[in-house]
Amino acid sequence: MRVLDLTRVRSGPTCVRQLADWGADVIKIETPVDAAQLGGPRSGPDFQNLHRNKRSLTLNLKSPAGKAAFRRLTDTADVVVENFRPNVKKRLGIDYDTLAVTNPGLVYASISGFGQDGPYAERPGFDQIAQGMGGLMSITGKPGEGPMRVGIPIADLSAGLLAAQGILLALLERAVSGQGQWVQTSLLQAQVFMLDFQGARYLVDNDVPKQAGNNHPTSIPTGVFRTGDGHMNLAVAGEDIWKRFARALGRENWTTDERFETAPARSENRDALGAEIETITQSKSTAEWIEIMNAAGVPAGEINDIGQVFRDPQVRHLGLAQPVTSHERGNTHLIGQPIIMSRTPSRIVAPPPTAGQHSNEILAELGYTKDDIRDMKRDGAI
């Protein structure tokens, strides 16, 4: 599969990475003047993690020769991915309808802030804006402390992953019909979709969820609890686990206490229950409680910082940190894919390319001669 990557910053590169890591021939189209700074410096950890396993071709899409080269390249492509504002691709003449005339099998994926049309279509879209408009910040954080963003760019990341899924679905459909199609998603769509059960609470029951801090909004007691040397997470969901949990704490009487006997009662009395739990959990260390809870069949876990995450024996066993030799950084590690496949595993086979590293190679594949390429460089087309 040949994939042309016109994306910048995060949502689009996240999408393309899902294809590059399984061996797609991804060609990153860049301007002749390196514009990587928009997504952070090329040598920075963010750029390094997003743009591995690609080749780089510099093209000036505003020049006739650059646009002609791009059109020739798209006729060889299976997929184009872009995250321009909706009007930009039409202005450049590289929109789906234009490219599909000569390549009807092309799958063209667009990621935007708010959608390709509609009242907000031309607004600039960034992750935090989508988190706020998509409702996530209204349910994140502690009650009474105001809206709170989550600690990762969840709208960007989920939009990129959903776009990749859409591309794969379109490629599967193309195998039947022989036709490509235009795949669209946006940060706002992805963020609203990711509300999941919280959104369903409103749509089905007209219940507007509120902030609940570290507590689960409906399943009590699920949240963060103090221990003798820090904190731990507990997830006590369902009656069977509730009974096992009470037994593990030596408080089987809680299962018949009218304040805690049922899930609605535990929800109504969550603060009282949390206080009673912590009078007990502070008597032992986090490690001791996790061992006790796991033995009892109660989900419990450490609350790690990022360094502890990558030192964790299970994370190491799963191979989530992959070695790579970067042009800018030398020997380092990047975050690998979280999908294990028995025959076709993902691999990081190449670091992010330098800008235009493969321009001569790719243009030669399209039939350009050395003289043609020299002229294009002279004229600023590449």
Keywords:
382 residues; alpha/beta; six-stranded parallel sheet; three-stranded antiparallel sheet; 17 helices; elongated
Description:
The protein has 382 residues and is of the alpha/beta class. 40% of the residues lie in helices and 14% in strands. The chain has 17 helices and eleven strands. The protein has helices at residues 11-20, 45-50, 64-74, 86-92, 96-100, 127-133, 154-177, 187-194, 197-205, 239-248, 263-268, 270-281, 286-296, 306-311, 313-317, 359-365, 370-378, and strands at residues 2-5, 25-30, 55-58, 79-82, 107-112, 182-186, 222-227, 230-235, 300-301, 321-326, 330-335. The strands form three sheets. Strands 3-2-1-4-5-6 form a six-stranded parallel β-sheet, sandwiched between helices. A three-stranded antiparallel β-sheet has the order 7-8-9, covered by helices on one side. Strand 7 (222-227) and strand 8 (230-235) form a beta hairpin. Helix 1 (11-20) crosses helix 7 (154-177) and helix 7 (154-177) crosses helix 8 (187-194). The chain is elongated and about 85 Å long. The two termini are 24 Å apart. The model has no long low-confidence stretch (mean pLDDT 96).
